[in-house]
Amino acid sequence: MIFRISKSEACAKRVDYLKRGFIFYMCASCMLLVQFVLYLVNSNYFEYLNISGGFYYLLAALGQAFLFTLIPWVIFYLPFTFWRRVQKVGTVLFVTAIFLLNVVAYLNGIVFQLYKFHINGFVLDLAFGGGGSQVFVFNNTLVLHAVLIGLVILFLTLAVTYIAFRYYRRVNGKQVRIGICLFLFSCIVPQLTHAYAAAANISSITEVSACLPQYYPLTANKLMLKLGVIKKEDLYVNNPDKGRGHNFIYPIHPIERADSVKPLNIIYIILDSWNFRTFTRECCPNIRAFGDRASVFNRHLSSSNGTRGGIFGLFFGISATYWQNFERTGTQPLFIENMLERGYDIETFASATLVNPPFYRIVFGNVKEIRKETPGATPFDRDNRITEDFLKYLDERKDSDKPFFSFVFYDLLHAIDIPAPYRKKFQPSWDYANYLALNNSLDPEPFFNLYRNCAYYVDSLVGKVFHKLEENGMLENSVVVVTGDHGQEFNENKKNFWGHGSDFSNAQVHVPFIYYYPGNTPEVYAHRTSHYDVVPTVMKRVLGVKNPAGDYSMGCDLFTPERPPYHLAGDPQNYAFIMNNVIYEKKVAGNIQVTDSLLNKLPRNQVNSGLLLEAIEYKNTFLKK
Strand 265-271 relative to strand 513-516: parallel, antiparallel, unpaired? Predict the structure, then answer.
């Protein structure tokens, strides 16, 4: 072993130095491990912890503690091994780094307990951006408490240092090998365990990983299937933890409803990637004409800038930041559950597959024999096919007394690809979407005209649906929602953004919205609404749910003009709070970017930390306190 390679005095000093560092490293890792265990104990995950989840977390926490402590050991301690005269400097630096690491770990535990996420760039911007004092208010008692905790951590760090200097001579090669094996075991085995648990959907293991800071557990579903570790039918389907405790409450209170409500059909007509600028009589004449007999909301915001979050918000009434929580536990939308309990026939007519993203499972998991795919070589073919199929379905339902819910999802605006005979309405128009030609100086009109030609054609298909509903007399007993899952940008902000999923400006979040119900008085509304409002509106007005919207949604009735001063859009990794003309975007890396509504960056001192904290609490509404 390295500790026996020489008996010379210089070599002996190096060996002693390494021995002290080894003991200190192992003890410091244990200090950090204790804090990580306290993260779990103080969280809402601990209440539902079982033996397998506890053992997994303990081992994963040890591996994470080893990795965190390894960084200062490598940077501040090991380089001084061959400089005997300055080895004390390395020791001081290493001890100081471990002390500070544990202080930060303690502060991180407080942040995680309060806000359900760890210290990252987002939190640092909250603390040190403009108005940080609105968020973190320190009175004398808190300051004294912090000082005492700091002294405790300092005492423990010094105690570990004493142990390292007192007992380093007892370290031998066998103990070093055991330490290395424990390090490798705690880093590798939890990752493999999580890969299996993620594929088998064992939430008692996958959920507790959230307690560890900067922990990125492994998933390998395809490999697990290929190796035969799990069966395809078990992938996210047979969830052993389904219905068991988890870290969120949905609904907050049990649903109560009136049984005397008149059953109405409910129809969602969704246009994928619908740019609000096409919501004109020239481009969408049929949809606009239908809007003339319905309620039109001109400031409607999607729950995301992408399909996954947009559809999630429309069906759950809450943000897709909860997607992973709901997916792991097999939680279904209360909207769908209530319709099933009332005997609704539920059918989907989606041009794009419902398998990826897995809406067939996330949204329609309890609906038997749900239609997942639509035949057709192109989105143009499939959009025509779903229209034909839905028209036939409406004829079949014409004389039925059983209410139905239909999800009609067009894809042509997302594909932006249409045969030549249908590209004549708006000129000049590209023949196809040439994404390689896109840049900030490009004139977007030919590309946008191609998109408008697609919108004009989809409008003709939707017009057939409206005509059939009218012809069959179904508008007398049907609620119809017409909107987009999210927007589609054509460099409106002059920042070289095209498409969707890249920013949270109006170009990607603002979508058309029409709400029709029997006997409604046509009107255009100017107050801000969102996808979160659809579920509580329909649940209350159509399904007879008595609960306040806040029990099961982040929205409210569409016709209520009062709104919080912020809107949440996005998914677990990348989301934004939109407040008037300011967008606070939490990036995947954890930092926060502040811009105006046109994506021009704003200085940090314009961050309203108090309002941002309120928005974070709003985001965490359905997490257990």
Answer: unpaired
Query: Could you give the 3-state DSSP secondary structure of residue 181?
Result: helix
Q: How many C-beta neighbours within 10 Å does residue 87 have?
A: 19
Rounded to whole angstroms, how far apart are CA atoms 89 and 83? 10
At 484 the pLDDT is: 98
SS3 at position 68: helix
- Using the structure block, give the residue that is written with the tokens 């704003």: 602
Helix (H) or strand (E) holding 36: helix 9-41
Instruction: Determine which helix (DSSP H) or strand (DSSP E) holds 479, and give its type and residue range.
Output: strand 478-484
Q: Angle 603-604-606 (CA atoms, 0-180°, nearest 5)?
A: 75
**Does the pLDDT at position 124 exceed 80?**
no
- At position 9, the amino acid (one-letter code) is E
- The amino acid occupying position 482 is V
Cα 104 from Cα 110, distance rounded (Å): 10
* Pairing verdict, β 265-271 and 404-410: parallel
- List, in sequence order, every residue forming a beta bridge with 577; answer none if it has no partner: 568, 584
Q: Which has the closest alpha carbon to 21: 161, 179, 158, 155?
A: 161
Whether the per-residue pLDDT at 113 is higher than 80: the answer is: no
Q: Which residues contact 570 (CB under 8 A, 6 or more apart)?
A: 304, 305, 309, 319, 320, 321, 504, 576, 586
Reported as type and span, the H/E element at residue 153 is: helix 140-167
Beta bridge partners of 295: 515, 523
Phi, psi dihedral angles at 595 (to 5 degrees): -135, 165
When pLDDT is cut at 50, 70 and 90, the band that residue 110 belongs to is: confident
Sheet with 265-271, edge to edge strand ranges: 345-350, 404-410, 265-271, 478-484, 513-516, 295-301, 523-530
Q: What percent of the chain has pLDDT over 70?
A: 89
Position of tokens 């900067």? 214
User: Three-state DSSP class for 346?
Assistant: strand
> Residue with structure tokens 């265990």?
37
Give SS3 for 371: coil
Strand 582-586 with 592-596, pairing: antiparallel
Please determine, for residue 409, whether its predicted confidence score (pLDDT) is greater than 90.
yes
Q: Is 428 left (phi over 0), alpha (psi -120 to 50) or beta?
A: beta
C-alpha span between 85 and 76 (Å, rounded): 15
